[in-house]
């Protein structure tokens, strides 16, 4: 055993000896624990339905410092308990190999008033505690019998099961093995502990064992293998720690892979992979902005919550929240606090813009993030969690409308709010920083994107791409139409980026039409405000104004589900202005509400998307149809890109399913009531990796995506639906 590890075993064993005399005087034990916490200046955790527990067992006492709290607090509580109980063993320097409880389930019994609590539950826990101490001290047949009886009577109580073995291990870590899910997972792997242990240990998903004789047999079998070539661990703590280290490694890799895959899917869905955009944040520098002057002078934005330590040590937001519940109030969920702290570490990035606020209606400054997350320790009232910020403005800008009360809030998506607040600083720059910032903010370095990259992602031929781009450049307005799954949304933004030559999201905007979308949303309209009604500009108006100020670059306005809106109502007088020969400042019309003379810049391109298989929608207005070109997107199963993708997955069943879908599409195209506009697209099968192509995945696509669509297509021909449903199912069997 490493002398620097497992220093806790001595104290944990001695504490058990000190607790045993309280078996018949538990009220005294509770009083003693309350005094320990009073001395620490801490509140005794809730251990029963009332603030003072009516009874307590020894394992729950161990649970006070073996749960999800900081290491500093664990050591503080253990030191106070050691002093109160007169323990002579050395205080631990580490907690390696110790399993911990969930903070929300940190007792070994149900609370008073809970029907699941038995009359003798806590007596039974003391009984098994006493029996394990006796057996650890003297392994006799009689002591084994007594332990087995006590174990069998106790393990069936509410909430115990495997949890009881955790308590047994805390008390005598060299005698009893912990069989929590982590240890069972680790020991069930032959490569980790050898075949003998893997065979006898229950599997990770197994139900708890209720037989004390079987449990002791497991302890004996594992102990006999310790130190062998197959199981090279010196003792149970060493084995338990190895399980912890390995599971943390595996979990970390798994989470990283899942997060990377999720981010890749999010970015790739609209073609924004690799694009780093500026984010905007609303930030309160201390309660009532009490730290604003200090933070401005130091060039930082900082958050408090010093008791939970370095935030980068927490693997998940939930881990952070649990730490907040323990160290601060558990009367609230702590979700907002955990979210703000997590965002400071993981979401705020250098280049992001920070708006400092006071209260809910005053902006007091602006800055740009220039550093990564830092943890800087200080005094009790110190704000240790920070990022370096180059503050560019300081002052007072009151606002009529209230904003979020939270300490840190991302406001990037609230474009009107960002535009309004940004306007406060257009003509005001702090004299102290004017030389340093040098005027305009640095231009983001967006990744290049060209025709070749487009063709590598979108399953379209080069000839089709050239035609599409030529038509759009000439007409300036185009509608991508096609059946479900042909990649209309996937293609739209990528098409814009390929024509721009760069992934600049500032020059692309996407909206989605629906039955409630109106002229007021698109161009301008009156909206309720505190003073009555205010005229607010819509998405397309704002976009055109931005494009007009940058007339040397192309701008793309993308409309998803264009045929779902009332187009005459939405476009209004813009029916004429969007025509390719009616663009520019010489072709102005007066807007309905503001009476402003408005034009659509010649560098604005409109890309609409329309689902040809949606029978619930009427045909496009002919006046609008004349102003758009229409480009059919068809299933790309035969394109070079899709064939390369398909071959890379190397799945016979997937190939069989795709062949079946191609045949199905031929039947759909020949159907006079359907036609090519109803063919099944390739998108249903995209975005998979080789390990994703499982029987379950393919069956799910067939059962929950393709067959329901066929039922809608041939709602009056159930025989045809059955024919193709059976064919699809056979292809994946």
Automatic annotation (TrEMBL):
Alphabetized GO MF terms: ATP binding; ATP hydrolysis activity
SUPFAM superfamilies assigned: P-loop containing nucleoside triphosphate hydrolases
Matching PANTHER family: 5-METHYLCYTOSINE-SPECIFIC RESTRICTION ENZYME B (PTHR37291), TYPE IV METHYL-DIRECTED RESTRICTION ENZYME ECOKMCRB SUBUNIT (PTHR37291:SF1)
Annotated source species: Gordonibacter urolithinfaciens
Protein name according to UniProt: AAA domain-containing protein
Alphabetical list of Gene3D superfamilies matching this protein: P-loop containing nucleotide triphosphate hydrolases
Residue ranges annotated for the ATPase dynein-related AAA domain, each copy included: 477-628
InterPro entries in UniProt: ATPase_dyneun-rel_AAA, Methyl-DNA_Rec/Restrict_Enz, P-loop_NTPase
């Amino acid at each position: 055993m490493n002398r620097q590890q497992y220093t806790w075993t001595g104290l944990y064993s001695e504490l058990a000896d000190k607790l045993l005399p309280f078996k018949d005087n538990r009220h005294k034990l509770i009083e003693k624990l309350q005094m320990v916490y009073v001395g620490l200046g801490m509140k005794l955790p809730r251990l029963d339905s009332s603030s003072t527990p009516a009874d307590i067992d020894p394992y729950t006492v161990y649970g006070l410092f073996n749960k999800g709290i900081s290491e500093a607090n664990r050591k503080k509580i253990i030191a106070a308990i050691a002093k109160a109980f007169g323990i002579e063993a050395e205080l631990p320097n580490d907690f390696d190999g110790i399993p911990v409880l969930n903070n929300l389930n940190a007792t070994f019994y149900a609370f008073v008033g809970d029907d699941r609590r038995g009359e003798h539950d806590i007596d039974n826990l003391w009984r098994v505690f006493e029996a394990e101490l006796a057996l650890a001290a003297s392994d006799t047949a009689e002591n084994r019998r007594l332990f087995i009886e006590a174990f069998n009577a106790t393990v069936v109580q509410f909430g115990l099961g495997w949890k009881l073995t955790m308590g047994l291990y805390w008390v005598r870590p060299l005698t009893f093995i912990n069989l929590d899910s982590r240890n069972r997972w680790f020991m069930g792997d032959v490569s980790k502990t050898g075949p003998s242990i893997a065979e006898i240990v229950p599997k990770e998903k197994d139900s708890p064992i209720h037989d004390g004789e079987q449990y002791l047999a497991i302890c004996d079998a594992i102990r006999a293998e310790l130190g062998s070539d197959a199981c090279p661990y010196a003792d149970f703590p060493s084995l338990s720690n190895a399980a912890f280290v390995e599971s943390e490694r595996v979990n970390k890799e798994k989470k990283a892979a899942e997060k990377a895959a999720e981010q890749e899917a999010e970015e790739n869905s609209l073609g924004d992979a690799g694009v780093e955009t500026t984010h905007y944040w609303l930030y309160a520098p201390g309660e009532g902005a009490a730290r604003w002057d200090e933070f401005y002078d130091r060039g930082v934005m900082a958050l408090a919550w010093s008791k939970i330590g370095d935030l980068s040590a927490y693997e998940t937001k939930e881990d952070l929240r649990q730490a907040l519940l323990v160290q601060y109030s558990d009367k609230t969920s702590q979700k907002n606090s955990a979210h703000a702290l997590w965002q400071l570490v993981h979401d705020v990035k250098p280049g992001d813009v920070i708006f400092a606020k006071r209260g809910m209606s005053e902006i007091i400054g602006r800055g740009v993030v220039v550093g990564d997350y830092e943890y800087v320790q200080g005094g009790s009232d110190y704000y240790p969690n920070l990022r370096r910020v180059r503050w560019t403005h300081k002052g007072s800008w009151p606002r009529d409308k209230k904003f979020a009360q939270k300490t840190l809030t991302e406001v990037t998506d609230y474009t009107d709010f960002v535009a309004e607040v940004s306007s406060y600083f257009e003509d005001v720059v702090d004299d102290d920083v004017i030389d340093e910032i040098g005027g305009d903010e640095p231009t983001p370095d967006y990744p290049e994107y060209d025709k070749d990259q487009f063709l590598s992602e979108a399953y379209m031929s080069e000839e089709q791409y050239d035609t599409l781009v030529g038509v759009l450049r000439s007409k300036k307005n185009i509608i991508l139409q096609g059946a479900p799954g042909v990649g209309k949304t996937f293609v739209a933004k990528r098409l814009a980026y390929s024509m721009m030559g760069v992934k600049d999201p500032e020059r692309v905007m996407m909206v989605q039409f629906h039955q409630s979308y109106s002229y007021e949303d698109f161009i301008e309209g009156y909206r309720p405000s505190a003073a009555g009604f205010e005229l607010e500009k819509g998405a397309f108006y704002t976009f055109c104004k931005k494009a007009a100020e940058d007339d040397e670059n192309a701008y793309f306005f993308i409309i998803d589900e264009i045929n779902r809106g009332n187009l005459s109502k939405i476009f209004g007088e813009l029916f004429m202005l969007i025509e390719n020969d009616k663009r520019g400042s010489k072709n102005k019309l007066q807007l309905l509400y503001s009476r402003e003379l408005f034009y659509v810049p010649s560098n604005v391109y409109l890309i609409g998307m329309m689902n040809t298989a949606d029978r619930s929608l009427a045909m496009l207005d002919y006046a609008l149809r004349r102003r758009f070109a229409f480009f059919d997107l068809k299933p790309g199963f035969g394109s070079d890109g899709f064939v390369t993708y398909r071959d890379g997955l190397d799945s016979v069943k997937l190939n069989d399913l795709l062949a079946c879908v191609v045949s199905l599409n031929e039947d759909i195209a020949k159907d006079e009531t359907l036609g090519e506009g109803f063919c099944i697209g390739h998108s249903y099968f995209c975005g998979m990796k080789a390990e994703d192509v499982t029987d379950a995945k393919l069956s799910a696509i067939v059962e929950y995506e393709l067959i329901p669509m066929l039922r809608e297509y041939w709602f009056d021909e159930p025989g045809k639906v059955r024919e193709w449903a059976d064919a699809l199912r056979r292809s994946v069997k």
